[in-house]
Design a protein that fits this description.
This protein is an alpha/beta fold. Helices cover 19% and strands 31% of the residues. The strands form two sheets. Strands 1, 3, 4, 5, 6, 7, 9, 10 and 11 form a nine-stranded mixed β-sheet that branches. Strands 2-8 form a two-stranded antiparallel ribbon.
Length: 171
């Protein structure tokens, strides 16, 4: 199973998606699976989390910055400030800056940042949530460049929603 112990230079993507690929709706997550939130904390560990501005703004204020991790926010807005996080304006610079701290870099959203970072990533931690929901943000397509290395069993959340954890590595 993926954990926060990835090596220097490692770039991972982490997301939860519905069975039909939705990862977000109206700036939020359209389900509540506490076990996936705990998994997210374990996966991202003490590394760097890299996110777009809208993802940063969607986090409840009490969780900004995400505790125990270096937070890097990617935005095109040169005037944007994110208290407790580093703000960068270019994906390659953001990844390079995050890697300079050592340890893994985890891209945590949103949809456009995932899509742009996919070619630079070497692993994906994916949670499948057994729901079909309307949404405006979808997970990137995982193609033949990726190999499924961990195919977790379906589990039931304490909320009654089924979910499973998958791990992908670049071939």
């Amino acid at each position: 199973m993926v954990d926060g112990a990835g090596g220097k230079g490692s770039v991972g993507l982490v997301w939860a998606r519905s069975t039909d690929g939705v990862i977000g709706a109206d700036g939020g997550i359209p389900w509540h699976v506490p076990e996936d939130l705990a998994h997210f904390r374990t996966v991202t560990g003490t590394g760097t989390v890299l996110m777009g501005r809208r993802t940063w703004q969607s986090l409840p204020e009490r969780f900004r910055p995400l505790p125990g991790r270096r937070n890097v926010v990617l935005t095109r807005d040169p005037a944007f400030h994110a208290e407790g996080a580093e703000v960068v304006h270019d994906l390659d610079a953001a990844i390079g800056q995050a890697q300079s701290a050592g340890g893994p870099v985890w891209v945590i959203g949103g949809g456009a940042v995932y899509q742009d970072a996919l070619a630079r990533a070497d692993r994906i931690a994916e949670t499948i949530v057994d729901v079909v929901v309307a949404g405006d943000t979808r997970a990137p397509t995982i193609d033949d460049a990726w190999e499924l290395v961990e195919d977790g069993p379906w589990q039931e959340s304490r909320t009654g929603t089924r979910y499973r954890f998958l791990e992908w590595r670049r071939r």
